[in-house]
Design goal:
Elements: E1 5-11, H1 16-28, H2 35-56, E2 63-71, E3 74-81, H3 89-92, H4 109-116, E4 119-124, E5 130-137
Antiparallel strand pairs: 1-2, 2-3, 3-5, 4-5
Helix pairs in contact: 1-2, 2-4
């Protein structure tokens, strides 16, 4: 196995969202990110995992896989589920769109992922689950201390 790659698999329990965030943040320490970069990535991972739990598995039982890979100063993250899938990915990525109609969701998950990461790709089809691929270049920040 490649020393710059980590794969974690866990159940679709909402409590595991925080585990995914911490695992990815720990992996990032290898490339000395700023606190702002860590928070950006943790937020994006949180949104992707929460989408798998709430939308992919409709808060039911399933497995979520998070894969993290580091190459040079870029972290690549893939969040995969085998849930119900997304019928229209373009529509789902529109700000304020949500498949949950009870008012409990803002529909900003993909928008946050796009805002905090340097790349986002969503692959999905009904009945085939969803794969969210994200990347973040570390060290491009102009953050002042």
């Amino acid at each position: 196995m490649d020393k710059n790659r980590l794969v974690v698999e866990f159940g679709s329990d909402a409590r595991n969202e925080s585990v995914a965030r911490v695992v990815v943040a720990a992996m990032m320490t290898r490339i000395n990110p700023t606190l702002c970069e860590v928070e950006d990535v943790k937020t994006a991972v949180s949104e992707a995992v929460t989408n798998s739990i709430v939308h992919g598995y409709r808060s039911g039982t399933g497995v979520i896989t998070v894969e993290v890979y580091i190459e040079d100063r870029t972290i690549y993250i893939t969040v995969r589920d085998q849930g119900c899938g997304i019928e229209n990915v373009d529509k789902a990525m529109e700000p304020m769109y949500t498949s949950v109609t009870d008012g409990s969701r803002s529909g900003m998950g993909f928008s946050f992922m796009e805002a905090f990461m340097d790349g986002l790709e969503v692959l999905s089809a009904p009945g085939e689950g969803t794969v969210v691929k994200m990347k973040k270049m570390i060290g491009n920040s102009q953050e002042m201390y």
